[in-house]
């Protein structure tokens, strides 16, 4: 007969990782517990001892070490340790020491193993590999969000309604009425094989109103005159979320879904039921309707509301980052339109660039503007620069008023150094790669995440190719970038209301950008450059890196999960600040984090830390990769 | 267990323990000869560790009883909790708990403390029928209690009408160990005049808090026994050593 210690049972009940256990297992675990008091500085277990117990800290504090004596974790009430040894070779792997007077609950090995083997959720929660646990956390969230897992073809309700290029607008309107659809695709079956423009364009209800009726055109007008050409399409197996991002980015409400170059159907914005997408599209639409900078500034509350809504609706960091980048990009585009209205057409063609988080589509609420100008090679400073200086100032000042603060490092098109002809940019980038200096490395970190926002955006593709080809072939440059990417490291974890550093020191708060997402993005950039990837978004870069098989198996996915989790905590923290009417920032105080968030953040930090060690090893100067 | 101050500590705060304690193994040999009840006789006959045994080697058992009131003669036991332990480990997994039917009515204030109700005790056995199990759990072990008088006197008084003889056993009293650390002082004239001299509480919860032990919901015999066992481990870790002799602490 076993008599129950109620205090022990109640301590376990409802507390992770015990919260998943049913009553039978919970009682089995609780009645197996023995207790031990350790005065501060007592060694609890030594490396290589026989592992007999799984320990739970009831009160006090414990430090767990790696074999080499460095700190592995610092635990307080509810923390647990010893599972590594029990699950591996029954020898203590991480020695532990009480750092305060501590009361330990001890579960004997046979009971621990039995519960572990019989309850999968519990096993997941205490799983030996921290990275595995984070995978569960992130994938559970992905499952819950259909936008992230469903492919576009699931939204296609019916075949696309097709019309030949020779049709008139009247025929288009009649077909749409008969079929009860809001859009038709205009097909050019004569198009040469291999020509991508099999679908010549799309006509929507709105086109009939704005391009036919309003200007008073004849109903016999060829449909090609009112259709939208240069179609944005989506492939049938892309994710719903990607389709949503395409709509956002191009500010369109209909997307033809293609399979093997044939249209499968058309999805309309209304098919993507999530309110959040409409909300961010609404903001983008409003941006383009504003007629002056004051109007744009007035949209700031809408931008914040959109951000907050996406957070509360459980969008993931990629969706939020892309939506915020699309909004930022739209601000820039509208400002450039307004600038051209004011200053007249540009004297030579140009391309306005976005760099950093906006280019990576990882933008959040707190962000500064990194931008630059590529000018046509015919650019003559004496004749043309006054125009572009004024254009840059207009955009930069406008952005600052819209909440995108000036770049403190002066990386803005207002700086003459960052207004250069395409040929100069190519040379500059090549120089940075061939002859890295401390300054050029910092620049590379910013400029090598670049995106064309306005004008001759195709120039950007050329620049990206220069970067991808040259960097891949420059081990010295990669080694320097890798060394730079190691300058910012994650902390070890949390202890009580403090952040614990790897050397054991404490601090009150953590900057999740500086200590988390930024070093992760830096690390991903180095690997992406090494494999010749031309992607810019960190998740897409990781996909390229994983495909190139340069990381140990599974580590790429770990990095995806780590980036996602740290980003989402950072995002939520900003949403909370917005809701409280405070200025959002990247600093998080541990007492605002749940036990679950602390644990998962620690897992993510560990993944980053290990990935940094791997990077250091992989890009050693002189090492042949 | 509960004690509201009456039995508190006047005695234990002053008593130099070690000098008063008998040589327990010898005392048990005498008692084994004198005892009539076979269960009691077996308990005494099993013997005890010698007084010079280092604490690290002493088998112990934390004990707590809940009672209907404070008077060992008039009141009775309603529950008993036992947790075997050593200095290294408290075997909570081997905890034992009994609810027993006292021969007096349950007092309302005590019910609010220990939470054991009339209907529970009505279905419970008389101490007489479980005495063998209780004594078996105590065999060869030094009893650890917080406030020895309660456990000793109540068990002694409960046995007399049931088997016609009482019981004696050695204890380590965590309350007495605390009292030693915080002796009651006679406040001086000025102190009495100007200051409310704060007595340091030596009750279980307050004593535990001083060693950083967690707050437990007390007044359940098993919880109190565990709480007392943990307190002893803490006291020894801080103030004694694993090689301290048993007879330095037993009473």
From TrEMBL, chain A:
Keyword terms, alphabetized: CBS domain
GO molecular function, one term: [protein-PII] uridylyltransferase activity
Residue stretches making up the Cyclic nucleotide-binding domain: 17-116
Lineage: Bacteria, Pseudomonadati, Pseudomonadota, Betaproteobacteria, Rhodocyclales
Phosphoprotein among keywords: no
Protein name: CBS domain-containing protein
Family annotation (Pfam families): CBS, cNMP_binding, DUF294, DUF294_C
Signal sequence residues: none
InterPro entries in UniProt: CBS_dom, CBS_dom_sf, cNMP-bd_dom, cNMP-bd_dom_sf, Diverse_CBS-Domain, DUF294_put_nucleoTrafse_sb-bd, GlnD_Uridyltrans_N, RmlC-like_jellyroll
CDD domains in UniProt: CAP_ED, CBS_pair_CAP-ED_NT_Pol-beta-like_DUF294_assoc, NT_GlnE_GlnD_like
PROSITE patterns: CBS, CNMP_BINDING_3
CBS domain span: 156-221, 227-283
UniProtKB/TrEMBL annotation, chain B:
Keywords annotated in UniProt: Exonuclease, Hydrolase, Nuclease
Basic and acidic residues biased stretches: 1-14
NCBIfam families from the UniProt entry: PRK09146.1
Region listing for Disordered, in residue ranges: 1-20
Domain Exonuclease positions: 59-241
Protein name: 3'-5' exonuclease
Gene Ontology cellular-component terms listed: cytosol
InterPro entries (UniProt xref): Ribonucl_H, RNaseH-like_sf, RNaseH_sf
Domain of life: Bacteria
């Amino acid at each position: 007969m076993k008599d129950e210690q109620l205090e022990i049972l109640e301590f376990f009940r409802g507390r992770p990782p015990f919260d998943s256990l049913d009553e039978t297992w919970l009682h089995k675990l609780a009645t197996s517990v023995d207790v031990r008091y350790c005065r501060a500085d007592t060694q609890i277990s030594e490396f290589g001892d026989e592992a007999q117990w799984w320990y739970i800290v009831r009160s006090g504090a414990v430090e767990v070490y790696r074999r080499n004596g460095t700190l592995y974790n610092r635990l307080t009430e509810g923390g647990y340790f010893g599972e590594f040894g029990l699950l591996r070779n029954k020898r203590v792997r991480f020695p532990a020491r009480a750092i305060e007077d501590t009361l330990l609950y001890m579960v004997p090995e046979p009971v621990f193993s039995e519960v572990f083997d019989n309850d999968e959720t519990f096993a997941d929660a205490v799983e030996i590999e921290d990275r595995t646990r984070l995978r569960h956390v992130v994938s559970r969230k992905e499952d819950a969000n259909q936008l992230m897992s469903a492919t576009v073809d699931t939204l296609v309700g019916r075949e696309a309604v097709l019309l030949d290029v020779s049709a008139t607008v009247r025929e288009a309107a009649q077909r749409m009425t008969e079929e009860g659809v809001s859009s038709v695709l205009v097909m050019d079956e004569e198009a040469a094989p291999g020509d991508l423009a099999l679908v010549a364009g799309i006509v929507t209800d709105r086109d009939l109103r704005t391009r036919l009726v309003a200007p008073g055109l004849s109903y016999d007008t060829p449909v090609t005159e009112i259709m939208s050409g240069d179609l944005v399409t989506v492939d049938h197996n892309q994710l719903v979320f990607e389709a949503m991002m395409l709509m956002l980015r191009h500010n369109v409400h209909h997307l033809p879904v293609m399979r093997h170059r044939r249209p499968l159907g058309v999805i309309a914005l209304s098919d993507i039921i999530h309110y959040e997408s409409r909300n961010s599209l609404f903001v983008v639409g409003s941006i383009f309707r504003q007629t002056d900078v004051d109007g744009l500034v007035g949209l700031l509350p809408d931008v914040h509301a959109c951000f907050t809504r996406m957070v509360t609706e459980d969008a993931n960091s990629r969706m939020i980052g892309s939506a915020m980048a699309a909004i930022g990009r739209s601000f820039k585009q509208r400002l450039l339109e307004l600038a051209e209205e004011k200053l007249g057409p540009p004297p030579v063609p140009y391309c306005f660039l976005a760099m950093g988080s906006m280019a990576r589509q990882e933008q959040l609420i707190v962000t500064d503007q990194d931008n630059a100008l590529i000018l046509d090679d015919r650019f003559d400073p004496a004749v043309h620069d006054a125009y572009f200086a004024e254009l840059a100032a207009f955009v930069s000042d406008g952005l600052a008023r819209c909440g995108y603060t000036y770049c403190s490092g002066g990386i803005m098109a207002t700086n003459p150094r960052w207004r250069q002809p395409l040929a100069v940019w190519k040379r500059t980038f090549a120089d940075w790669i061939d002859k890295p200096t401390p300054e050029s490395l910092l620049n590379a970190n910013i400029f090598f995440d670049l995106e064309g926002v306005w004008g001759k955006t195709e120039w950007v593709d050329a620049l990206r190719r220069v970067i991808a080809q040259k960097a891949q072939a420059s081990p010295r440059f990669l080694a320097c970038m890798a060394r730079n990417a190691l300058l910012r490291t994650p902390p070890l974890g949390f202890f009580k209301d403090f952040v614990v550093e790897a050397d054991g020191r404490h601090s009150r708060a953590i900057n999740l950008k500086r200590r988390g997402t930024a070093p992760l993005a830096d690390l991903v950039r180095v690997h992406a450059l090494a494999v010749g990837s031309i992607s810019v978004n960190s998740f897409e870069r990781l996909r390229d890196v994983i495909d190139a098989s340069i990381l140990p198996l599974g580590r790429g996915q770990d990095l995806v999960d780590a980036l996602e989790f740290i980003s989402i905590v950072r995002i939520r923290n900003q949403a909370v600040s917005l809701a409280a009417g405070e200025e959002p920032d990247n600093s998080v105080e541990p007492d605002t984090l749940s036990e679950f968030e602390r644990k998962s953040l620690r897992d993510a930090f560990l993944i980053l830390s290990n990935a940094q060690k791997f990077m250091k090893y992989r890009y050693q100067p002189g090492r042949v990769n | 267990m509960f004690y509201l101050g009456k039995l508190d500590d006047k005695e234990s705060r002053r008593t130099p323990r070690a000098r008063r304690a008998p040589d327990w193994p010898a005392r048990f040999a005498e008692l084994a000869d004198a005892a009539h009840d076979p269960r009691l006789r077996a308990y005494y006959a099993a013997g005890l560790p010698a007084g010079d045994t280092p604490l690290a080697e002493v088998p112990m058992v934390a004990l707590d009883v809940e009672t209907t009131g404070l008077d060992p003669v008039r009141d009775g036991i309603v529950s008993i909790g036992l947790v075997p332990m050593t200095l290294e480990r408290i075997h909570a997994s081997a905890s034992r708990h009994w609810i027993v039917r006292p021969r007096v009515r349950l007092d309302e204030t005590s019910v609010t403390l220990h939470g054991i109700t009339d209907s529970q005790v009505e279905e419970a056995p008389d101490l007489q029928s479980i005495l063998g199990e209780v004594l078996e759990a105590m065999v060869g072990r030094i009893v650890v209690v917080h406030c020895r008088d309660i456990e000793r006197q109540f068990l002694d008084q409960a046995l007399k009408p049931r088997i016609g003889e009482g019981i004696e056993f050695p204890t380590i009293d965590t309350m007495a160990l605390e009292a030693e650390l915080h002796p009651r002082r006679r406040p001086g004239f000025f102190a009495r005049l100007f200051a409310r001299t704060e007595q340091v509480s030596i009750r279980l919860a307050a004593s535990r808090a001083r060693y950083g032990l967690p707050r437990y919901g007390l007044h359940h015999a098993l919880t109190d026994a565990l709480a007392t066992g943990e307190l002893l481990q803490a006291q020894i870790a801080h103030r004694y050593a694993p090689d301290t002799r048993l007879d330095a602490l037993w009473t």
